[in-house]
Design goal:
It is a single chain. This protein has three helices and no strands. The termini are far apart. By secondary structure, it is mostly helical. The longest helix is centred in the last third of the chain and has 24 residues. Helix content is about 70%, strand content about 0%. It has two domains: about 25 residues; about 35 residues.
């Protein structure tokens, strides 16, 4: 039952917070450049998440040919 409450909370909280935060945007540059208020740790974290995420997407086919996965 806790699973359903958590899922419902997430599905309601995410769009509500997104709608609330979009009201602070004044132009497209605010969204694309984070309003030029992104700190160095935030910038590095965003860069690492993008780098690791793209590596995960593009490296999957290579790892499928690794000997333990082949028959």
């Amino acid at each position: 039952m806790a699973y359903y409450f958590t899922l419902a909370f997430y599905l309601l909280f995410l769009p509500a917070s997104g709608l609330h935060l979009t009201r602070r945007l004044k132009k497209e540059e605010d969204f694309l450049g984070a309003g030029r208020n992104l700190t160095t740790p935030g910038l590095v974290g965003t860069w690492l998440a993008t780098w690791i995420g793209s590596g995960d997407i593009f490296s999957e086919p290579d790892e499928a040919n690794w000997p333990p996965f082949t028959r």
